[in-house]
Amino acid sequence: MDRFPSKKKAQERVDRIQAFQKELQEIESSGLIRLPYETRRLIEGYHADLISRFKQQFDTDNSAAEKQLSLGMRILTFLGGLALCASIFFFFYQIWGLIPESVQIVSVISLPILAVLTMRFAAQREPSHYYASLIGLVAFIGFVLNLNVMGSLYNITPSQNAFLAWGGFALILAYRFGLRLLLLAGLLCLLAYLSATVGAFSGIYWLHFGERPENFIFGGIFLLALPFCIKHHKNPHFIWFYHLVALLSIHLALLIMSYCGHCSYLMGNENRIEVGYQTAALAAYGITVWLGVRLQYPGITHIGTTFCTLFFYTKFFDWWWDALPKSLFFFVLSLITIGLLVLFRSMRDRFREAV
């Protein structure tokens, strides 16, 4: 069992076992080969034992129906966590002015502590960590409220360092319990901190960091590089979330900058700045697709192809919507889509030949 320290690897092994069993049935049905009864019994017993242990330790899914239900449970966990956090927020909002300051301080300090203790208790008794994830979201929101209330009570000057504290808290819980929802919250806070810090160094007030999309490019590059510097042996599925947040940050910023030259830190003609970012965006899409294929990360490839397609669609609309008849516009658009399809297919064939 040491070879499968995470639920993802255990689930992949279960899927391979089921695929092997189905393929073996097909081969035997075709009459090509038939395993001796004793050999088949040993293999089936070994697989059944593995699946049972994975089910007990990692709460793996053994059928397509179970996978669909698990996805629904994850969505419900997220929605339930948000609803519970909203309930706690409005409860404190209603009674906040009615309780003394000492009770306020004790409340905001004890909320995340009690939530983390409850989270630990739930994680020990439920391998799927659905309830732990829900309670962890409450702990995170409680910690956010904690810093906000303490800062307000003691007149602490607001700064982007709050994002770092919130992100650090969420990441600690995420890595301790293997929770992807808290990992995503922590990465978003870390991205906000990095972007706001870049904006502050550039001379703008940190709360206005969203007005400069270039800030997110630097933060995204940092997050993209982190998984290559930090090994994730225990939580290898976390790497995808680093890539997701980083690449969405970079590509969205490049897409916005290709239309918004006046938002740039660069001095010069706005049209030239936009053309420069359009060129950079195309290069970034190509690098993203190549990196996804090279590292065999389908998610990275999908992000690159999606943004590449979105970029061409928006640019063609910008260039030709008013200049061409609508029928001709959509015909040209269909031809370009087919051209992109041919290009991606050619890239796939080259990769197959290389392999």
Automatic annotation (TrEMBL):
List all membrane-crossing ranges: 75-96, 102-123, 130-150, 156-175, 182-207, 213-230, 239-259, 275-293, 300-321, 327-344
Q: Which Pfam families match?
A: DUF2157
Residue span(s) of domain DUF2157? 58-182
Q: Tell me which UniProt keywords the record has, alphabetically.
A: Membrane, Transmembrane, Transmembrane helix
Q: What is this protein called?
A: DUF2157 domain-containing protein
Question: What organism, scientifically named, is this protein from?
Answer: Nitrospina gracilis (strain 3/211)
